[in-house]
Write a structure and sequence with these properties.
The complex is a heterodimer. Chain A is an alpha/beta fold. Helices cover 36% and strands 26% of the residues of chain A. The longest helix of chain B has 38 residues, at 194-231. The chains are: A alpha/beta, B mainly alpha. Chain A binds chain B through residues 15-17, 293, 332, 335-337, 360-365, 367-369, 371-373, 376-381, 383-384, 390-391, 394-395, 404-405, 408, 418-424, 426-427, 437, 440, 444, and chain B through 1, 4, 7-15, 120, 123, 127, 181-183, 185-193, 196, 200-201, 204-205, 287, 290-292.
């Protein structure tokens, strides 16, 4: 018998702009000791479905309108809030995406861990403390007794997620719901956390609902997979069947969108060309200062340490590294959003690093940057037309009467409807906004584009489209592109060459396929082995 | 080019239009807006619609309760109360709007520069604000009136010069949080000038909080003027403001209650309207309550 069986669940949100059916007639079951993977893009209703069962959706506007959720013979949807709270505390554990916001920053992790024990299991303080320390040791936190009195900010992201897991499992629940538990983590840390969840699941014969947008992660974890789109279950089955013989068009589309392959077209640059962008011995240190008026220097953090590399016209250089490796700082330093401490940036024979004032301002049209978050990188008060026309006007790139014409061309170029130019950014989806940001960068016909994680905030199907667009435009205009990403699969798909950064330094550099085939540096090897793949279990 | 000219654009809804449509659904805020509009209109038209002159005394009449000839009664000198309240509204509303504008100009400029430039300049400018905060306001105004003598203009400036402090802090905070937003960085990366970034990219994005704070400043300024007039530092007879009328009304509250009730009522009504409108604007401009 299934541990949890959800039948014909319907959840609607009654908003000012109408009724949104977030979960539409969804049924699934979790067997004891099994892992159920729920896959879907943002807005597919995968999280809402699970939160509905636990009575955790904001209400109003949300309302569970239909269905049953039998958990050990009892319908969770018919329980009183008090009963549900007991179930959540003792029988179903929850972990969320962001371990920083789901831990209380003002309480030691010890107090947060023992709280459920004292509230739900009525243990004494010493018993609770012993249980908590044992739980911390189980999730792999060294010196658990000492760390018991630490605050959440004293842990790294991966360690915080371990604490979250310990907290979720401390009352020995039968079911663990993990909502994108590794999305905010670096790939090597992600691999460790996935392994940990797998081990715990096996040791305690735990059932797990694993929610993720990442097919690779789900295929590694799940025994059974449910694919959701627009609130409905479109396909389910064994991971092998779902991912390698997908039946539903949406699943096929999801699988096809995975950037699992090598670069589709041959490099379109001439290796004999002179180097177009040359970065020499670039350094940038962050000085951590005390607060107050005098700002004493506390410590220095080298974010970019003696970086040297070159880039040709039409070439895409992938820059890979985990968070804190300095890859974003490097990108920002090259476009002079961050002042370099020393070193040289030569673009088409001109030294950008030596420029300042008006000369720098006017030269900026040659090098543009595309940011990660298309929700933050567009001015919410400007229409698309104003946003695209402004750089044209400021740099006097076209005649006044040609501005509209040029804006329309840009819209065509990035695949947006010309009729949308009077709209504001908030009326577009994430993918469309990223297209606007690309059009804006393109408006000045730059020679160099720095793309700082441009697809990391997007769903896989959208991500694939944006990558194709970037590839097409780089080749069409023979721009040089520095593509910064933490996602190795994406970098492999797009780049001609790859540079791997760790702690502000380049540790390895090479042609993409050669580097992926035989990584030399141990760090590169760790990175590559940590990527979750769609794997056939034959 | 022809097809371009004839093309139908899908017209976007700006955040302002969104906010306005939300405001339209807020009955209380709309009603408040109508009340304010009426108040301003009455104040503007006072010289033509006022039934009597504000300084014309009729000692025979004395303080008389509301009647057909004097709707809101007369004060101890037999001056028509309705007329005096109408003339008082001119002063009170003018103080409200002018002093708030003074506060707005200084505060926004000060806050934007401190926030955008940052560093030592920011620290210096904000410490200056802190020092002014620490000065007791009443003493400051008394000093000013002692040095420069009593004048309406001085009153406006003095109140404005005190009220800008909070405005500067609010604007600085907003600018600080916006400064590191990627769209500002994108503007820098595109080679836009500092002024263009401040005026076209920063300012429109801080304007929401500024408008809201403004609607909250106007009532506090009107109250300040009332308070100063109440202390005898503001408007002097025969001129009247709501504050001075209330202060006279308080003295004679027991014998002639209408002298207190009516000016107090008009002041409260205006303050309520401004506060409700401010609340409505705050809700309407808050992106968190927007549709997504």
């Amino acid at each position: 018998m299934a541990l949890l069986s959800v039948d014909q669940l319907v959840t609607r949100f009654h908003t000012r702009d109408g009724v949104i059916t977030a979960v539409d007639n969804v049924s699934f079951a979790v067997e004891p000791g099994q892992v159920l993977g729920i896959v879907g893009e943002s807005g597919s209703g995968k999280s809402v479905a699970c939160y509905s069962i636990l009575g955790l959706i904001p209400s109003p506007p949300g309302r569970v309108e239909q269905g049953t959720a039998l958990f050990g013979g009892q319908d969770l949807l018919k329980m009183t809030p008090q009963q549900l709270r007991r179930v959540r505390g003792q029988e179903i554990g929850l972990i969320f995406q962001d371990p920083m916001t789901s831990l209380n920053p003002h309480m030691t992790i010890g107090r947060q861990l023992t709280e459920p024990l004292r509230v739900h299991a009525h243990l004494s303080n010493t018993e609770a403390k012993q249980r908590a320390i044992a739980a911390l040791e189980e999730v792999g936190i060294a010196h658990a007794t000492q760390r018991f009195n630490s605050f959440p900010h004293e842990f790294s992201g991966g360690m915080r997620q371990r604490v979250m897991i310990a907290m979720a499992l401390i009352n020995r629940p039968k079911l663990l719901i993990a909502d994108e538990p590794t999305t905010a983590l670096d790939v090597t840390v992600q691999a460790q956390i996935l392994q940990l969840i797998k081990n715990l699941q096996r040791d305690h014969n735990l059932s797990v609902i694993f929610i993720s947008h990442d097919l690779g992660v789900v295929s590694e974890m799940a025994d059974h997979v449910v694919v959701m789109q627009k609130g409905q279950v479109v396909e389910e089955g064994q991971p092998d069947a779902v991912f390698f013989r997908p039946q539903h068009p949406y699943t096929q589309q999801l699988v096809a969108a995975l950037p699992n392959t090598a670069k589709p077209s041959v490099a379109d640059f001439n290796a004999q060309d002179p180097v177009f962008l040359q970065v020499n011995h670039l350094c940038k240190e962050y000085k951590i200062r005390s607060g107050g008026f005098f700002k004493r220097l506390l410590t220095r953090v080298p974010a970019v340490a003696d970086i040297t590399f070159g880039l040709r016209r039409g070439e895409i250089l992938g820059l890979v590294g985990e968070s804190g490796s300095g890859k974003s700082t490097l990108g920002r330093t090259i476009v002079r959003l961050v002042e370099p401490d020393s070193g040289q940036i030569m673009l088409a024979g001109r030294d950008i690093s030596a420029m300042s004032g008006e000369e720098l301002r006017l030269t900026r049209r040659d090098f543009q940057i595309i940011f990660q978050d298309p929700y933050a990188s567009l001015n919410p008060r400007l229409t698309v037309f104003d946003c695209l026309a402004e750089p044209l006007r400021v740099h006097k790139l076209v005649e006044k009467n040609q501005v509209l014409q040029r804006v329309n061309e840009l819209m065509d170029e990035v695949g947006l409807d010309r009729r949308m130019i009077r709209k504001y950014p908030h009326e577009f989806s994430g993918g469309q906004r990223q297209r606007i940001a690309i059009a804006r960068a393109l408006a000045m016909r730059p020679k160099l584009i720095i793309a700082d994680e441009p697809v990391s905030a997007l769903d896989v199907t959208i991500q694939a489209q944006i990558l194709k667009l970037l590839l097409h435009l780089t080749h069409k205009y023979q721009m040089a592109m520095l593509f910064i990403s933490h996602d190795l699969a994406v970098v492999r798909y797009l780049s001609d060459r790859v540079v791997v950064m760790q702690n502000g330094k380049i540790v390895e550099e090479g042609e993409t396929e050669a580097l992926f085939a035989s990584p030399q540096h141990p760090y590169t090897k760790t990175l590559l082995s940590a990527i979750p793949h769609l794997r056939r279990v034959d | 080019m022809n097809d371009l000219a004839n093309m139908h654009y899908e017209k976007g809804r700006s955040l302002w239009q969104d906010a306005f449509s939300r405001l339209k659904n807020n009955r209380l805020a709309l009603l408040s807006f109508a009340v304010l509009l009426l108040m301003v209109l009455l104040a503007l038209l006072t010289p033509w619609i006022a039934p009597y002159s504000y300084e014309e005394q009729n000692l025979n009449l004395g303080a008389s309760p509301p009647s057909m000839a004097h709707w809101l009664g007369t004060d101890v000198f037999g001056r028509d109360q309705l007329t005096r309240i109408l003339y008082g509204s001119r002063i009170s509303l003018m103080v409200g709007f002018i002093a708030t504008s003074v506060a707005l100009c200084i505060g926004v400029l000060w806050g934007t520069i401190a926030g955008y430039v940052g560093g030592r300049l920011d620290a210096f400018m904000m410490r200056f604000v802190d020092i002014l905060y620490a000065l007791p306001f009443t003493i400051f105004i008394i000093l000013l009136t002692v040095v420069f003598g009593r004048s309406l203009l001085l009153l406006f400036l003095a109140i404005g010069a005190v009220e800008w402090l909070t405005m500067a802090r609010i604007v600085r905070g907003q600018v600080l949080s916006l400064k590191h937003q990627e769209f500002i960085e994108a503007a820098v990366a595109m080679g836009f000038s500092r002024w263009r970034i401040m005026l076209r990219h920063l300012a429109p994005n801080v304007i929401g909080p500024i408008i809201i704070y403004t609607t909250l400043t106007i009532p506090s300024v009107i109250l300040l003027e009332s308070f100063l007039s109440f202390l005898g530092l503001g408007i002097q007879p025969p001129q009247s403001s709501w504050g001075s009328l209330i202060s006279y009304g308080v003295e004679t509250m027991e014998e002639y209650p209408w002298l207190l009730i009516f000016p107090a009522l008009s002041l409260s009504l205006t303050l309520f309207a401004l506060n409700f409108l401010g609340d409505g604007l705050r809700d309407a401009l808050d992106p968190r309550v927007s549709k997504d």
